[in-house]
Design goal:
Blueprint lengths: L1 H11 L5 E2 L9 H11 L4 H17 L8 H30 L5 E2 L6 H10 L3 E3 L5 E3 L1 H12 L13 H22 L1 H8 L11
Parallel strand pairs: 1-2
Antiparallel strand pairs: 3-4
Helix pairs in contact: 1-3, 1-7, 2-4, 3-4, 4-6, 5-7, 6-7
Length: 203
């Protein structure tokens, strides 16, 4: 299960929305809904993460009670898709209720070290609609909900509180890596952009 979540976090990180390093502007209600849909059912990253993580779990036969073959793979894919959807839904809903920003807010700074520290610290911080920095309770709620709730359909030997709390804590740790990728996303896109393609058209 741990391997599956790592693959999912890294595989989908660069596809998730983030704010540009400009002056802070809060989301409107419409923008919140748009952000939610783009983070869940309309996100290619979510499907990539679910199928990719399910493939890793299938190879590891995790959990073994679900077996192999198409049935086992379908079970794992559905479970992981539900897990990621639960995390996003709880996070977005709690953020809306508290008027917090659900996006990762990139650093308004220069220097790799400062930006890296920002990515780590802002895994647990966000801003409210007034632009004030707040401890991000919704991100905690999303992480632990996505760890505890899915355990309910896992084999009986899994404990929603023990294993769910452990998986929620892992999700928080993985979110740090995801935010690092988001912070340095523009640089990463330049590195992996196909070479030999000019932005100017020739006549």
């Amino acid at each position: 299960m741990r391997t599956s979540l790592v693959l999912a976090a890294l595989g989908s990180a660069t596809l998730f929305a983030q704010t540009p390093p400009t002056a802070y502007t809060p989301l409107t209600a419409g923008e919140r809904w748009e952000h939610y849909w783009n983070e869940t059912f309309l996100s290619p990253g979510l499907y990539f993460a679910a199928f990719g993580a399910a493939s890793g779990a299938q190879l590891a036969n995790d959990p073994p009670e679900w077996g192999q073959g198409f049935k086992g793979y379908s079970h794992r894919t559905g479970s992981l898709f539900a897990t990621f959807t639960i995390q996003a839904t709880v996070h977005e809903a709690a953020s809306a209720a508290l008027h917090y920003d659900p996006r990762y807010l990139r650093c308004h700074c220069q220097g790799g070290g400062r930006r890296l520290r920002h990515a780590v610290v802002w895994s647990l911080l966000t801003k409210n609609d007034e632009g004030q920095t707040r401890f991000d309770l919704p991100v905690l709620a999303g992480a632990y909900a996505s760890g505890i709730i899915p355990i309910l359909w896992y084999p009986d030997r899994y404990s929603p509180w023990k294993d769910g709390f452990r998986l929620g804590s892992q999700q928080l740790g993985f979110s740090v890596g995801v935010n690092v990728i988001k912070e340095f996303g523009p640089e990463l896109r330049r590195i992996f952009r196909p070479k030999g393609r000019s932005t100017k058209s020739s006549h």
